[in-house]
Amino acid sequence: MLRYRLLLSALAMVTALTLVSCAKEVGETNEEIQARVLESWINVKHPGSEKTSSGLYVIEYLEGTGRQVTDSSYVFVKYTVRELSGNIVATNDKAVSEQLGKFSYSSHYGYNIWRVDQDALYAGVEEILKRMRVGGRATVAFTPALATLSVTIYSLFSSLDGTVPLIFELELLDCVENIYTDYEEPMLRLYSEKYYDGLDTIKRGFYFAKIKEVSAEDSIPTEAQIKIRYIGHMLDGVVFDTNIQDTAKRYRIYDSKKSYEAMDVTFKDNIADFKQSNSIIEGFADAIMRMRYGEKAVAFFWSQAGYGAGGSSPAIPEYTPLCFEIEVKEK
Asked: If pLDDT is split at 50, 70 and 90, which confidence band does 14 have?
């Protein structure tokens, strides 16, 4: 009986705090209202949490023992974002997605890569990351005052509702100072050594090899209409796109609304025109330009020739090297 009364008392306190917090005073802004809502929630759920001068609440914090995040680091982060109700609104944790019944083979899981100090992260997220070392974990909560963006680059932050308090659970898996020399280029070299006998680059960040060659007589003239079959995957083997139906089904990314016909492409003699005319990424265009009718090839390249800092949500994360297996159909 005593336990029941205590439970009722706790519920009544939470309700009272919420009602008081949500009562709008004359001239009060949404940010001020949400700040009071969050303060009440913290006092009930996580009393004693650290509050920084900016208004960030640090609910749980483990600094980590690895490399320290600097003002220009690229950070590799696993995250789960919740509302105060506990509802999960975003995560890149595969296990969490599976528990929620929202796992999809067309989505990326594991970690996302962000750069700090470029006004593309929520201020609350950037503040806690700069306190962390690799291996660290933190749970923080903040109001809309710390959820503003100057630059829209990363899909997570542009997809969230920044008008209400949010709770971020963050794990810092790694950080590097130069995403290209410290991460992408070494990854591409290892991929080349493992699968293509140490194939060298055609140019920086771009590898290309023909799997099936034909004679020069089958060269493709500028403005010719050609048909392309392709499989696009990341270097870990995860297939994110293809126009081959059996392959899409094998990798569980088949979409019944998608046409799996060969891709129509207008052949151009320079990459800029090729990209613009066919709405394709640079690395894909560069590979096709080096091919002839009936040839098959593979190209793998860094994110500067792919989807860059923004990635292509939900399948391709930021700063991701890609690989394409390509076939130009016969004339």
From this structure: very low
What is the separation, in whole angstroms, between the first and last Cα of the chain?
83
Longest dimension (CA), the chain: 90
How is residue 159 written in tokens? 């997809």
Cis omega before residue 314 (within 30°)? yes
Return the structure tokens found at 239. 């297939």
Give residue-wise pLDDT tens across range 21-76.
Answer: 445 555 788 888 999 999 999 999 999 999 999 999 999 999 999 999 999 999 99
Range 186-207 average pLDDT: 97
Q: Determine how many CB atoms are found less than 10 A away from the CB of residue 286.
A: 20
Residues 50, 61: Cα–Cα separation, whole Å: 10
Three state DSSP letters for the chain: CHHHHHHHHHHHHHHHHHHHHHCCCCCCCHHHHHHHHHHHHHHHHCCCCEECCCCCEEEEEECCCCCECCCCCEEEEEEEEECCCCCEEEECCHHHHHHHCCCCCCCCCCCEEEECCCCCCCHHHHHHHCCCECCCEEEEEECHHHCCCCCCCCHHHHHCCCCCCEEEEEEEEEEECCCHHHHHHHHHHHHHHHHCCCCCCCECCEEEEEEECCCHHHCCCCCCEEEEEEEEEECCCCEEEECCHHHHHHCCCCCCCCCCCCEEEECCCCHHHHHHHHCCCHHHHHHHHCCCCCCEEEEEECHHHCCCCCCECCCECCCCCEEEEEEECCC
